[in-house]
Amino acid sequence: MTNAPRAVLIVALLATTALTIVLGVTDPAAPLSYPTWFLIWNLFLAWIPVCFAAGFAAVRGRAWLLPLGLGWLTFLPNSPYLVTDLVHLGEGVELWRHVLQYGFAAWTGIILGVVSLRLVHDRIERDFGRLYGWAAVIVSIGLCAIGVVIGRFARWNSWDLVTRPDAVMATTLEWVSSPFTYVQSTGVALAVAAFFGLAYLTIWALVKS
User: Fold this and answer.
1) Cis before 35 (ω within 30)
2) How many CA atoms lie within 13 Å of 6's alpha carbon, on the beta-carbon side?
3) How far apart (Å, rounded) are the C-alpha atoms in residues 103 and 191?
């Protein structure tokens, strides 16, 4: 991607982030703390994997790929997680405002995730080959879907992987070992993986065409 399209992409993502915030702070029907503040926080978290991925794509020494890759993967679920925030939508006089606000946030999250995944994919494919590149994509999408479910239903977040990794892993292994016991969360994980994966393939195909 050349400099001009890259600049347009960044500006567009910043614009949808700003629109999400503007729709919240100008909402006369709800207190400023809801739903705006948690959406702002979730959007902030969704931008973090892009920063890690940019470093992953640009760094010269391969020794940095592992820590940057782990940082990216830790925060990647925050991007598609914004789609699940649609669960907070409710009927009311400002329903359409909230539909647009959550819609902008969900769109921004998915595209941020796709952009960061594309950066990581390209770097791995360039350094290690096509097979490793696509393997990384598939594994990352699967782990990302698990992360979204752990965040939505168990209420863990990316920071907990650093501060309480044992508890997060225990919760994750409990669900992974008995997926049919938690039908709703398993269904959500499959849906998130399909949605995120298809979004990535769509953008990948458009860029390659």
Assistant:
1) yes
2) 8
3) 17
Rounded CA-CA distance 48/53 in Å is 9
Q: How far apart are CA 185 and CA 113, in angstroms?
A: 21
DSSP 156-191: --TTHHHH-HHHHHHHHHHHHH-GGGSHHHHHHHHH
Backbone dihedral angles phi then psi of residue 157, each to the nearest 5 degrees: -130, 175
Query: Among residues 21, 181, 176, which one has the least CA distance to residue 105?
Result: 21
φ, ψ dihedrals at 105, nearest 5° = -65, -45
- Report the pLDDT value the prediction gives residue 15, as an integer from 0 to 100: 95
Q: Minimal CA–CA distance to 141: which of 183, 195, 179, 93?
A: 195
Read off the pTM. 0.89
Query: Both ends of the chain: CA-CA distance in Å?
Result: 13
| Count of all residues that appear for the chain in the document | 209
Phi first, then psi: what are they for 119, rounded to 5°?
Answer: -60, -45
The amino acid at residue 57 is A
In the prediction, which pLDDT does 151 show? 86
- Tell me the C-alpha to C-alpha distance, in Å, between residue 65 and each of 60, 74, 119, 122, 152: 9, 14, 12, 13, 29
3-state secondary structure of 35: helix
The SS3 call for residue 158 is coil
Segment 141-170 shows an average pLDDT of 85
Instruction: Give residue-wise pLDDT tens across range 9-43.
Output: 999 999 999 998 888 778 776 555 556 778 888 99
Query: CA 65 to CA 8: how far, in whole Å?
Result: 27
Rounded distance, CA 57 to CA 5, Å? 17
